[in-house]
Predict the 3D structure of the following.
Amino acid sequence: MKLLYLTLALISGIFSATGQYMKKYPIGVSGCSVYMFCDPGEFEKTYSEDSSIVYTGECEADSLKYGVICVKLNESVTVGNDAEELMISYLDYLKSVFEITQAAGYGKGHTLNGKPDARGVIDYWKDKEGNERKIKSWTDGKFIAVMYIMSKGELNETEKMNVFLNGFRFPGM
């Protein structure tokens, strides 16, 4: 019994030390969702030039911005190289939007638990003001999701960041 109380106290202490719990948030009516440490509020819905639906949401925790961009593609793409190339083209477009001046380069070959056919890439960006971002993007050919963490100045990596970046869920997951 003492072991049970000790275990519960330890778990409680870990959560109170970080001050944050991960919670699942729906992304508009897309059917997608994301696990986040802070509440992004209602995701903003806009349309891209090709009429794809774009949902965006962002929140701040521990002096970091956690953001999600979810694009429901107007026309599906075959999962595989075509979908990955489209995702990378979208990331290249975002580099100009975020005024990125430095990038480490796309790391390909990432997989998402529960969605073995999804493709993922990762990168590290720095903008003209010196803000650093770690981004991870996912696609299943129907959606493109871009998850990012931004820090004013140097971004010190933690395992918590990776949990967030892998926390995107496609419809039905």
